[in-house]
Amino acid sequence: MEPKGDLLNWETFSCSICMDLPKDPVTIPCGHSYCMNCIKSHWDEEEKSNRCPQCQQTFTQTPVLEKNTMMSDLLEQLKKTGLQAASADHRYAGPEDVACDVCTGRKQKAIKFCLGHDTVSAAAAERTERQRELEVRREEIQQRIQDREKDVKLLQQEVEAINHSADKTVEDSEKIFTELIRLIQKRSSDVKQQIRSQQETEVSRVKELQEKLEQEITELKRKDAELKQLSNTEDHNQFLHNYPSLSALSESTHSSSINIRPLRYFEDVTAAVSELRDKLQDILRDTWTNISLTLTEVEVLLSEPEPKSRAGFLKYSCEITLDPNTAHTYLLLSEENRKVTALDQHQSYSRHPDRFTSWWQVLSRESLTGRCYWEIEWRGRGVHIAIACKNISRAGYECGFGRNDKSWALDCHQNSFTFWYNNTATPISVPQSSRVGVYLDHRAGLLSFYSVSETMTLLHRVQTTFTQPLHAGVWLYICGNSAEFCKLE
Asked: Is residue 65 a contact partner of residue 22, using CB atoms and an 8 Å limit?
């Protein structure tokens, strides 16, 4: 006969969920008993499945749990007769208060074991599997490290190549320009020498002619004196005697009139040199344009790419304020000149040559170069968000943003967006928003407009060459419309 301690052991009466003697024991309709809190927690974790953890019977409704008084009293009596608590070998070893899979035979969401069963082999198998995963991850990381080290090395080689190419190009360019300057100086010296030689020849010719004329004048004066003396002879016979001895007047070897050139002796040379200068300027201008375009292409290749997120754009955020000296008189500036509103009456602005007089426009005070980003919140029926060159016209139809080749504008209307440049419109088919972000990379010739909401949506991108600093601009065309440059954190 088995001892009483073996028959009335702890496992006979234990709660199969917590593996301990039941506290406030309850019995569910299938007959199995649990701690009241254990079965409630189990059903809560199982998302109201109302399933018995042992026999897996499912109930259509959550059973009403009432304390099993008889079992509670029985447990109290059995404890007095020597019922033993669970040994440490069969207590659950884990962070959660759930039953052991091996003891109960139930399949849990996670693999759980109690310390009394053979968990060493399972843990070893699990460790082996995780070890393999770790090795694979380490190989991936090491391969990525090698790839990045190769990339770094290639980038360093590219830096060295850029520096070498730039140094050699500067050296070659200086030699070429030095040769060009030397050639121009040589041509200048040749022209000067030719002018001086021709000057000497012409002056000698004129002086020689001058000497001959002076000699002829002297001879004529002598003849005139002889004739005068003969004319004053009172004795007729003497007069007639001496008259035949007078020599006849020799024929002049020079024209009676000397053609003096207008004082433009070397103007033809000046004209020729001026023509050469103009041609050289044209060549240098065209060549410099090609050089600038080439440098721009290099800068685009070497410049940082356009950001992909709003956080990336915010790294280049800049504060924009509007210039009152450019504002049309129907525009009111407020919020420390960050906001502009169109009104139906003139504002008391002073006269200024930079003020727009035809369209309700205004430019920023700041000159924009490098990489810049700003956002504009607009209200009303529509507004033009623009950037423009400072020398844009201030009057006439052609001064409107986007209506010329000195400005680029996004027309934000209630129902649509349209991009304008050089009086050409490009419709944009994207959802409309009241906040627009503008990104400018002046050196790379890049201008982008974005719709800013929970995400950033590209509206339009321009790739060109900017030859001078730019200014942000706003054009309002209906009273009550407004636009404000946002403060970006």
From this structure: no
> Alpha-carbon distance 178 to 197, whole Å?
28
Query: What's the pLDDT at 435?
Result: 94
Tell me: the pLDDT tens digits for 204-218? 888 888 898 898 899
9-14 contact pairs (CB < 8 A, 24+): 9/83, 9/84, 10/83, 10/84, 10/85, 10/86, 10/87, 11/86, 11/90, 13/75, 13/78, 13/83, 14/86
From edge to edge, which strands make up the β-sheet containing 456-463?
331-334, 339-342, 482-485, 371-379, 435-441, 446-452, 456-463
Torsion, Cα 5 9 10 15, to 10 degrees, reads -150
Residue 188 has pLDDT above 80, yes or no: yes
Query: What DSSP element (H or E) covers 277?
Result: helix 267-302
Spatial separation of the C-alpha atoms in residues 312 and 445, rounded to whole Å: 19
Quote the pLDDT of residue 323. 96
Distance from the first to the final alpha carbon of the chain: 84
CA 281 to chain centre: 34
Q: What is the side-by-side strand order in the sheet with 417-421? A: 361-363, 470-476, 382-389, 407-413, 417-421, 424-428
Instruction: Identify the pLDDT of residue 274.
Output: 83
pLDDT per residue as tens digits for the range 337-365: 999 999 999 999 999 999 999 999 999 99
Bridge partners of 425, per DSSP, are 420
